Amino acid sequence: MADIFTSDDNSTPLTPEEREGLKPKWITLRHELNEFETRNILDAEMWLATHKQQDVLNDTFLMKLHKRMFGQVWKWAGEYRMTERNIEVAPYKIPVKLKTLFDDVKF
To answer: What local confidence, expressed as pLDDT, does residue 30 receive?
Structure first.
């Protein structure tokens, strides 16, 4: 089994610094992390189903939802990513890209 520092077929490996952001220190295996994140996401889906909002195309709502989805798992939940990843958007560009996306959807 892959530890949390090792990539599996669908995951980006965690650096030791990123591992420090993990709240439950008992998690050591990737499948444990995936299961715990999944439970947290399901809780967020239940919250979302019962808390309808008119305006979801904004930074405030997105950060609140992100915190609901990952807040039990990661210290950084509800904040923008600060590390470089191979997903084509540098951390400093995220707020601008999201604003553009929100504007495009509203249009």
So the answer is: 85
